Amino acid sequence: MYYAGLILVDYYREYSDIIFKNIINSNINMNLSIFYEKADRFKTIRDLTYHISNVGVDLDKYNSSREDIDIAKFSYNDAKYIRREMQLKNEDLYYLYVYITAYSDNIKELEYLLNKLEGLLESSGIQTRRANFREEQVFLSCCPLYKNSFEIKDSSKKNILTSGIISTYPFISSSIFDESGIFFGTNMYNKSLIFIDRYDREKYKNGNMVVFGTSGAGKSFFIKLQILRYRLMGIEQYVIDPEREYEKICKNLNGVIFKIGPSSDTYINVLDIREESIEESKGYLSNKIQRLIGFFNLIFNNLNEEDRAILEESIIECYKRKNITFDDESLYKRKNKKRMFKESIDMPILEDLYNVLLEKEATKILALKLKPFISGSLKYFNNHTNIEINNKLIIADIYELRRRKY
Ligand SMILES: Nc1ncnc2c1ncn2[C@@H]1O[C@H](COP(=O)(O)OP(=O)(O)OP(=O)(O)O)[C@@H](O)[C@H]1O
Ligand SMILES: [Mg+2]
């Protein structure tokens, strides 16, 4: 492997962006080493003041006849600026040293890389010098040895204030690539391709994602594209669609649309118990009751303890009438001499529960509350499930529920 070094000798102070952005994004094989050295605050201010008064006198005395008058003026103003920032804005002065080594196993390519680096740096207002006769020191300074050799130090030393250090921040992600990911798009800054595997548990805490964009920017388009790709990978997807915009993609992908609303003819029965609904496949009914209480809590607006107890009793009775008890065996039936899990048609619907609730004085009030779900505006809840609930793509169309509160 061949190495060649560059020393940063000057940079454009007004540059406010990250100054190494260009080269970090360039994917050139290189090591970048940055040293910051904090200057003694008290001493710095004292030196600056001394310098300012000295040069100030010079400037007055010699006026414009001095040859280096422009340089003197410049450094005078500079010193004043630094002193002001340090005293008024509480900034600190640092010395900055930057070394870069490029490497390649081909010496011609290395020359090419060096040229390219120099060009890129120059375009971000950075001047560099090749580390001729000082390659070894620059190489060592770019190793993780914390070694800023005195032979190269002076040629790279630059003042920088705290606020300026920000622009030397060397970390920007140049590309995002998860091996098992799917294509998301291209990085605007360096055109690299981005592949993300949202379900990579080791890398991401969860698979959540949010898409922002102005109206018409392509958010929906992007999401539909993701649905298409996840479909190809066989990942389960549920879509809640308030705008009725996923109908077409659902049809094209043979998914299932489940419309919720008065005009709906697709139903899911909340009282259904499905074989795969619990993990350890034990205690189907008690598990279901827990969930149903949650459901009724939502639609009845906070049940009190008493309501909860009598409701639970009624639910148990309701399932009992369909021959479903706490014994899991009661959820299986024989059909064509085969043992199978009971089907949707064997399950009670809300009306059955309603009838149970009507029978007792104590539960009549709950029955009343349930009435809209049986024969009123919400009666689409009162049906046996008639959609293929095991499909891996299910779109819940809630268009008709918009601006309504239950
Ligand atoms: N990557 C793309 N390639 C081609 N056409 C695209 C692309 N992204 C979006 N479009 C088109 O741009 C238009 C607007 O996109 P889209 O409906 O996805 O925007 P939106 O961000 O969801 O808007 P709104 O906020 O109004 O819902 C659509 O006609 C869509 O087909
Ligand atoms: Mg949209």
Describe the structure.
The longest helix has 22 residues. About 20% of the residues are buried. This protein is an alpha+beta fold and about 400 residues long. Strands 1, 2, 3, 4 and 5 form a five-stranded antiparallel β-sheet that branches. A three-stranded parallel β-sheet has the order 8-12-9. The site of magnesium ion (MG) has 2 residues, from α8.
Name the features.
406 residues; alpha+beta; Helicase, Ruva Protein, domain 3; 2 domains; 12 strands; binds adenosine-5'-triphosphate
User: Number of helix segments?
Assistant: 13
Q: Helix- and strand-based class?
A: alpha+beta
What series of H and E elements makes up the topology?
EHEHHEHEHHEHEEHEHEHHEEHHE
- The span between the termini is 71 Å
Helical amount among residues, as a percent range?
25-40%
The protein's oligomeric status is single chain
| Major sheet characteristics | 5 strands, antiparallel
Quick check: average pLDDT? 87
Give the radius of gyration.
36 Å
Topology overview:
Layout: E1 2-11, H1 21-25, E2 30-38, H2 41-62, H3 69-88, E3 93-104, H4 107-123, E4 126-130, H5 135-141, H6 150-156, E5 158-161, H7 162-165, E6 182-186, E7 193-196, H8 219-232, E8 237-241, H9 247-252, E9 256-259, H10 284-299, H11 305-320, E10 332-335, E11 338-341, H12 350-359, H13 361-374, E12 393-397
Parallel strand pairs: 8-12, 9-12
Antiparallel strand pairs: 1-3, 1-4, 2-3, 3-5, 6-7, 10-11
Helix pairs in contact: 2-3, 11-12, 12-13
